[in-house]
Amino acid sequence: MKKVIIMIIVIFGLISCSGPGNNMDTSADIEQIRELIRKSTEANNRGDVDGWVDLFDDNAVYMTNGMPEISTKEGLEEVARSGFTSGKTDIVMTPDEIEVLGDWAFARSQIKGIYTPNNDDTPLPIDMKQIAIYRRQADGSWKIARLIGNSNRD
Asked: What confidence tens digit (pLDDT) does each residue in 29-43 have?
Protein backbone atom coordinates (compact mmCIF):
# COMPACT_ATOMS: atom_id res chain seq x y z
CA MET A 1 0.00 0.00 0.00
CA LYS A 2 2.86 2.34 0.87
CA LYS A 3 4.37 1.83 -2.63
CA VAL A 4 1.02 2.70 -4.24
CA ILE A 5 0.75 5.92 -2.23
CA ILE A 6 4.31 6.85 -3.12
CA MET A 7 3.61 6.12 -6.80
CA ILE A 8 0.50 8.33 -6.72
CA ILE A 9 2.49 11.15 -5.12
CA VAL A 10 5.23 10.75 -7.74
CA ILE A 11 2.71 10.76 -10.61
CA PHE A 12 0.95 13.86 -9.28
CA GLY A 13 4.33 15.50 -8.82
CA LEU A 14 5.23 14.70 -12.41
CA ILE A 15 1.88 16.02 -13.61
CA SER A 16 2.41 19.31 -11.81
CA CYS A 17 5.90 19.58 -13.35
CA SER A 18 4.65 18.80 -16.83
CA GLY A 19 1.71 21.16 -16.99
CA PRO A 20 0.58 23.30 -19.93
CA GLY A 21 3.67 25.50 -19.71
CA ASN A 22 5.95 22.57 -20.48
CA ASN A 23 6.45 22.16 -24.23
CA MET A 24 8.43 18.92 -24.15
CA ASP A 25 8.04 16.90 -27.30
CA THR A 26 6.95 13.44 -26.17
CA SER A 27 6.09 12.10 -29.63
CA ALA A 28 9.14 9.76 -29.76
CA ASP A 29 8.26 8.37 -26.32
CA ILE A 30 4.65 7.85 -27.36
CA GLU A 31 5.81 5.97 -30.46
CA GLN A 32 8.05 3.74 -28.32
CA ILE A 33 5.09 2.95 -26.07
CA ARG A 34 2.89 2.20 -29.10
CA GLU A 35 5.63 -0.20 -30.21
CA LEU A 36 5.56 -1.91 -26.78
CA ILE A 37 1.79 -2.32 -27.12
CA ARG A 38 2.30 -3.83 -30.59
CA LYS A 39 4.99 -6.20 -29.23
CA SER A 40 2.67 -7.22 -26.38
CA THR A 41 -0.08 -8.00 -28.89
CA GLU A 42 2.33 -10.08 -31.00
CA ALA A 43 3.71 -11.95 -27.96
CA ASN A 44 0.17 -12.80 -26.83
CA ASN A 45 -0.90 -13.97 -30.28
CA ARG A 46 2.27 -16.08 -30.75
CA GLY A 47 2.19 -17.48 -27.22
CA ASP A 48 5.70 -16.09 -26.71
CA VAL A 49 6.41 -16.31 -22.95
CA ASP A 50 9.90 -14.76 -23.10
CA GLY A 51 8.79 -12.03 -25.51
CA TRP A 52 5.94 -11.04 -23.19
CA VAL A 53 7.98 -11.16 -19.97
CA ASP A 54 10.79 -9.10 -21.55
CA LEU A 55 8.37 -6.17 -21.90
CA PHE A 56 8.26 -5.79 -18.10
CA ASP A 57 10.50 -3.81 -15.77
CA ASP A 58 12.44 -5.85 -13.19
CA ASN A 59 10.12 -4.58 -10.42
CA ALA A 60 6.87 -4.84 -12.38
CA VAL A 61 3.49 -5.69 -10.88
CA TYR A 62 0.74 -7.41 -12.91
CA MET A 63 -2.87 -7.38 -11.70
CA THR A 64 -5.81 -8.93 -13.55
CA ASN A 65 -9.25 -10.43 -12.89
CA GLY A 66 -9.51 -13.19 -10.31
CA MET A 67 -5.78 -13.60 -9.73
CA PRO A 68 -3.41 -12.46 -7.01
CA GLU A 69 -0.98 -9.76 -8.04
CA ILE A 70 2.22 -10.96 -9.66
CA SER A 71 5.39 -9.09 -8.68
CA THR A 72 8.29 -11.30 -9.79
CA LYS A 73 9.73 -12.27 -13.17
CA GLU A 74 9.19 -15.91 -12.24
CA GLY A 75 5.53 -15.17 -11.52
CA LEU A 76 5.15 -13.39 -14.87
CA GLU A 77 6.75 -16.37 -16.63
CA GLU A 78 4.42 -18.76 -14.82
CA VAL A 79 1.24 -16.86 -15.62
CA ALA A 80 2.30 -16.42 -19.26
CA ARG A 81 3.28 -20.08 -19.66
CA SER A 82 0.02 -21.23 -18.10
CA GLY A 83 -2.10 -18.94 -20.27
CA PHE A 84 -0.20 -19.48 -23.51
CA THR A 85 -0.09 -23.27 -23.23
CA SER A 86 -3.80 -23.62 -22.39
CA GLY A 87 -4.99 -22.06 -25.64
CA LYS A 88 -4.49 -19.60 -28.48
CA THR A 89 -5.33 -15.92 -28.48
CA ASP A 90 -6.06 -13.73 -31.45
CA ILE A 91 -6.29 -10.22 -30.02
CA VAL A 92 -5.96 -6.60 -30.99
CA MET A 93 -4.83 -4.03 -28.41
CA THR A 94 -5.93 -0.49 -29.14
CA PRO A 95 -4.55 2.36 -27.05
CA ASP A 96 -7.21 4.95 -26.24
CA GLU A 97 -4.83 7.29 -24.46
CA ILE A 98 -1.08 7.56 -23.97
CA GLU A 99 0.44 10.18 -21.68
CA VAL A 100 4.14 10.71 -20.96
CA LEU A 101 5.07 12.37 -17.67
CA GLY A 102 8.85 12.59 -17.51
CA ASP A 103 10.29 9.13 -16.87
CA TRP A 104 6.82 7.67 -16.29
CA ALA A 105 3.97 7.17 -18.73
CA PHE A 106 0.64 5.43 -18.91
CA ALA A 107 -1.57 3.97 -21.60
CA ARG A 108 -5.27 3.16 -21.35
CA SER A 109 -6.13 0.45 -23.87
CA GLN A 110 -8.90 -1.85 -25.10
CA ILE A 111 -8.24 -5.51 -25.87
CA LYS A 112 -10.61 -7.37 -28.16
CA GLY A 113 -10.37 -10.75 -29.79
CA ILE A 114 -10.88 -14.48 -29.39
CA TYR A 115 -9.37 -17.09 -27.08
CA THR A 116 -9.58 -20.71 -28.22
CA PRO A 117 -8.81 -23.22 -25.45
CA ASN A 118 -6.75 -26.27 -26.45
CA ASN A 119 -9.19 -28.67 -24.80
CA ASP A 120 -12.30 -27.20 -26.42
CA ASP A 121 -13.02 -25.91 -29.90
CA THR A 122 -15.43 -23.30 -28.53
CA PRO A 123 -13.80 -19.89 -28.97
CA LEU A 124 -14.37 -17.39 -26.19
CA PRO A 125 -14.64 -13.65 -26.85
CA ILE A 126 -12.09 -11.36 -25.23
CA ASP A 127 -13.27 -7.88 -24.31
CA MET A 128 -11.00 -6.18 -21.78
CA LYS A 129 -9.63 -2.85 -20.72
CA GLN A 130 -6.26 -2.17 -19.16
CA ILE A 131 -4.04 0.52 -17.74
CA ALA A 132 -0.31 0.10 -18.22
CA ILE A 133 2.15 2.30 -16.37
CA TYR A 134 5.55 2.48 -18.05
CA ARG A 135 8.94 3.43 -16.61
CA ARG A 136 11.83 4.79 -18.66
CA GLN A 137 14.87 2.54 -18.30
CA ALA A 138 18.47 3.72 -17.85
CA ASP A 139 19.11 3.17 -21.58
CA GLY A 140 16.14 5.42 -22.52
CA SER A 141 13.84 2.55 -23.49
CA TRP A 142 10.44 1.96 -21.87
CA LYS A 143 9.17 -1.09 -19.98
CA ILE A 144 5.93 -1.96 -18.24
CA ALA A 145 6.10 -1.12 -14.52
CA ARG A 146 2.45 -1.88 -13.68
CA LEU A 147 -0.19 -3.65 -15.75
CA ILE A 148 -3.77 -3.63 -14.50
CA GLY A 149 -6.59 -5.16 -16.52
CA ASN A 150 -10.09 -6.43 -16.20
CA SER A 151 -12.84 -7.86 -18.37
CA ASN A 152 -15.78 -5.94 -19.77
CA ARG A 153 -17.74 -9.21 -19.69
CA ASP A 154 -19.50 -10.75 -16.71
From this structure: 999 999 999 999 999
